[in-house]
């Protein structure tokens, strides 16, 4: 098949089609759901601190709103592309479907490097993006959230800008906000919490004790760093972590509290240490659980044979290509795919939106318990489809994730 599958949109479309065919749908449904219904491209002029103006390109993709408003994060990254944003919006639909949230998928991105921008430049970019997409989004239309290199401060600026445009306070326009602006308890850690629940399920199936289990995590940002913290607290040995600059390894377990303390707001920490290994070596370490928690296309047909983990839990979106999925599944590695494993973020975002709508806020215990129940239910459903249909976990997750949307499309009479 080759790794033309590194094209994340094309890979997603292949599996969406397989899932819909197995659910009994025909060409019309495949044609509709293999692409987002809407994609807005915007150009955002930003006054830089030195007085010049720089024009940034941004996107917002809305996969399908048959189930309800679309929902999904906004990514700030130099590598953002139209295809990537489209694929990410489809993955959001699948996550919402698996978790049974009343949403379709959406996703946004801006081609930029926030590591090279000042605080005020980032504010102007965030506000400019909202002005550019404001016609298309809103608390009952499309609800953004954080993703790679965006955070609660950026959500706060975006919410403030939207509220100014609409002339009323609109906390439900965006999730992942600071708590004082209507953010939810537990959203900051939600993606990692969801991954932890999946790791527990996977370890149970493989008969491995969490105590002393060897965990390797690629990426030390929002998802990866909190995951390292929770795994460390649960008694596991986090033997490897990495960021964009390199990786750290210690067979006895890394000093996670120390590393958490030293990381910067973009999830960089390895640059502080001289003896780092490379990201390629990190992925190939012998371990019980490997968690890619950075970017796409990290496990490919090129390195899949060398992966020595018993379990792979995808915290990142799209870290494993289709060919690599086949190789590792054939080798008996248990794969918990992204659209299931990383659904914790959007689940607690949903709780945030519900709380904003009702104006009554829950405590963290309630959030964690509700999150746990939804993640476990999603896992059991996907695992059951995997067993009964004798298909790999990714296809099973796609079947679970797209079913409700296809039914909603059919009831609305769209195809
Ligand atoms: N933040 C959220 O709520 C959610 C995030 N995700 C996914 O999790 C992944 C990570 O997202 P966040 O933690 O939010 O991003 P982040 O921006 O907070 O952190 C990203 C981390 O990945 C590292 N990284 C970037 N490129 C890398 C590379 N080539 N090799 C190794 N490490 C690299 C960065 O140095 C940083 O440590 C993404 O795929 C994102 O879409 C999924 C669900 C929700
Ligand atoms: O919290 C959300 O709404 C979306 C999070 C997200 O972008 C993702 O799951 O990839």
From TrEMBL:
Record's keyword terms, sorted: NAD, Nucleotide-binding, Oxidoreductase
One term of GO molecular function: glutamate dehydrogenase (NAD+) activity
SUPFAM superfamilies linked: Aminoacid dehydrogenase-like, N-terminal domain (SSF53223), NAD(P)-binding Rossmann-fold domains (SSF51735)
Catalytic residue positions: 107 (proton donor)
Annotated Pfam families: ELFV_dehydrog (PF00208), ELFV_dehydrog_N (PF02812)
Keyword check for NAD: yes
Site residues (Important for catalysis), renumbered to this chain: 147
GO biological process terms, semicolon-separated: L-glutamate catabolic process
Residues annotated as binding substrate: 71, 95, 349
UniProt binding sites for NAD(+): 191, 222
Domain Glutamate/phenylalanine/leucine/valine/L-tryptophan dehydrogenase C-terminal: 184-413
PANTHER family in UniProt: GLUTAMATE DEHYDROGENASE (PTHR11606), GLUTAMATE DEHYDROGENASE 1, MITOCHONDRIAL (PTHR11606:SF13)
Family: Belongs to the Glu/Leu/Phe/Val dehydrogenases family.
Protein name: Glutamate dehydrogenase
Source organism: Paenibacillus pinisoli
């Amino acid at each position: 098949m080759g790794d033309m599958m590194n094209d994340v949109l094309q890979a997603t479309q292949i599996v969406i089609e397989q899932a819909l065919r197995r659910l009994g749908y025909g060409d019309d449904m495949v044609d509709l759901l293999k692409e987002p219904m809407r994609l807005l491209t915007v150009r955002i002029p930003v006054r830089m601190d030195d007085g010049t103006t720089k024009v940034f390109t941004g996107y917002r993709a809305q996969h399908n709103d048959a189930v309800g408003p679309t929902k999904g994060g906004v990514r700030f990254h130099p590598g953002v592309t139209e295809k990537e944003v489209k694929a990410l919006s489809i993955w959001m639909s699948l996550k919402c479907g698996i978790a049974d949230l009343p949403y379709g998928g959406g996703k946004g991105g801006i081609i930029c490097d926030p590591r090279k921008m000042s605080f005020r430049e980032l504010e102007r970019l965030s506000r400019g993006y909202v002005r550019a997409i404001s016609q298309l989004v809103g608390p009952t239309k499309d609800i953004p959230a954080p993703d790679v290199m965006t955070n609660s401060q950026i959500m706060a600026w975006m919410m403030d800008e939207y509220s100014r445009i609409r002339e009323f306070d609109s906390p439900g326009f965006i999730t992942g906000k600071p708590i004082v602006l209507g953010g939810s308890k537990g959203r900051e850690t939600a993606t990692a919490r969801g991954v932890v629940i999946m790791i527990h399920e996977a370890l149970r199936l493989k008969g491995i004790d969490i105590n002393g289990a060897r965990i390797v995590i690629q990426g030390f940002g929002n998802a990866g760093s909190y995951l390292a913290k929770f795994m460390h607290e649960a008694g596991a040995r986090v033997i490897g972590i990495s960021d964009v600059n390199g990786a750290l390894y210690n067979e006895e377990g890394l000093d996670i509290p120390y590393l958490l303390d030293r990381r910067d707001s973009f999830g960089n920490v390895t640059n502080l240490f001289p003896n780092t290994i490379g990201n390629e070596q990190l992925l190939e370490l012998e371990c019980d659980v490997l968690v890619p928690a950075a970017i796409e296309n990290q496990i490919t047909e090129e390195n899949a044979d060398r992966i020595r983990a018993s379990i792979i839990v995808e915290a990142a979106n799209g870290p494993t290509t289709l060919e690599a999925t086949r190789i590792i599944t054939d080798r008996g590695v248990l794969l918990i795919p992204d659209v299931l494993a990383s659904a914790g973020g959007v689940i607690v975002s949903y709780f945030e939106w519900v709380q904003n709508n009702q104006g009554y806020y829950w405590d963290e215990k309630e959030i964690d318990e509700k999150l746990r129940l939804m993640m476990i239910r999603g896992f059991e459903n996907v695992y059951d489809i995997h067993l009964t249909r004798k298909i790999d976990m990714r296809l099973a997750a796609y079947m679970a994730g797209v079913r409700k949307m296809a039914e909603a499309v059919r009831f609305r009479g769209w195809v």
